[in-house]
Write a structure and sequence with these properties.
Length: 370
């Protein structure tokens, strides 16, 4: 795949992630928080799934009509299905993590990875944006079928359980800010890619997107592990003492930064080889350094997310949502002017500056409320 086509793929892929976060991040975040405090876990699962059932059903019926009438391109339909699959996989991963089923968690990830690699190797000569999105969607389908077969009895019990209407309201109220969090996290780097495209830097879109994604994913793998274990503990402690909750948050931040520093040092010496492994020599030579910028940006964003837990502990979820909206707007503003003047270098620097400004604003809010 050429650098320009790779850029087009990431533009579509990030758009899918954006809309998937819009519809599914709320349920995933609520499941993570309420799992440790809700006694009736089956009702929690049923309520979570019921919130996405109607939107998914509507979209699938709409896709069926559009396919029959041949109104929209097949890529658009596959992208919609991939977005639904991404959301369901996100909820599934969250459930497996919080319930301690890490064996199933890794099995699902391995099934997806093996499917994608195997099919890509077989059809390497026919790779284009439509084929890649289709392969990713089919890998999600395989993972979901695997869980459906393996956990049939558990899923049957969930569907036989009654939905808790009061819990549904609590999940929505808590999860809405996290929907904005997920959307804003995707927005800044995706926005930079669109501006690069707008500036006719077509090859740089692919170079930037792939290398930025590598650094970001490396950091967020460990960040998700910390969130899985620490957020429920922080929430429970915040019900007793905000001071102790802040102490736990500080500990989680130090643990995360230690890992991020270690990853940065290793990546400093291996970023070129990492980039070349997942791309081409040209992409590695042109933009392997972006991995380091991405690691720095993701580290600041991780700290920003963890310290927002202080405001959540103080029942300031509206302020948290506003923080992430402001972060996205600041990132868009900085990204536009940085790319206009510095091109791909500006796209790499912009998320770092936005996250630093976001941290400063957050620190001022914490000083005000605590």
């Amino acid at each position: 795949m050429s650098e320009e086509n790779l850029g087009n793929f990431f533009l579509i892929y990030n758009s899918i992630l954006f809309f998937s976060g819009l519809f599914f991040a709320s349920q995933s975040s609520s499941l993570l928080r309420f799992y440790s405090i809700e006694d009736d876990r089956l009702a929690l699962y049923k309520t979570t799934l019921s919130q996405v059932f109607l939107p998914i059903s509507f979209v699938l019926i709409l896709c069926g009509f559009l396919l029959i009438l041949n109104i929209v391109p097949i890529l658009a339909l596959i992208s919609i299905l991939f977005g639904i699959g991404t959301g369901l996989i996100l909820i599934l991963y969250t459930q497996l993590r919080v319930s301690g089923r890490f064996r199933d968690y890794f099995l699902v990830a391995i099934i997806q990875a093996i499917f994608v690699v195997a099919v890509m190797l077989i059809y390497s000569a026919e790779t284009n944006v439509t084929n890649i999105i289709t392969i990713l969607f089919l890998s999600q389908l395989c993972a979901l079928v695997f869980i459906l077969i393996k956990r049939y009895l558990s899923l049957r019990n969930i569907f036989l359980t009654n939905r808790n209407k009061y819990l549904s309201i609590d999940l929505l109220m808590y999860g809405m800010p996290f929907m904005l969090i997920a959307v804003s996290n995707t927005f800044i780097s995706a926005y930079c890619q669109y501006i690069l495209k707008y500036q006719n830097l077509d090859n740089d879109v692919g170079v930037y997107a792939l290398n930025y994604s590598i650094g970001e994913k490396i950091i967020f793998i460990f960040f998700s592990i910390i969130v899985t274990y620490k957020v429920p503990e922080i929430y429970q402690e915040s019900q007793r003492s905000i001071k102790n909750a802040i102490y736990l948050i500080n500990g989680a931040v130090m643990m995360f930064l230690f890992y991020a520093l270690f990853i940065f040092i290793v990546s400093y010496f291996t970023s070129y080889y990492l980039s070349e492994t997942f791309s081409t020599v040209y992409i590695a030579e042109r933009g392997h350094w972006i991995i380091l910028f991405s690691i720095i940006s993701a580290s600041f964003l991780g700290v920003f997310s963890l310290y927002n837990e202080i405001l959540l502990s103080l029942k300031k979820s509206g302020v948290v949502a506003l923080n992430y909206i402001l972060l996205a707007l600041i990132g868009a503003l900085i990204g536009y002017f940085m790319i206009l003047n510095y091109g791909i270098l500006g796209a790499a620097i912009a998320p770092i500056l936005a996250n630093i400004i976001g941290l400063i604003l957050l620190w001022m809010q914490i000083k005000r409320f605590v």
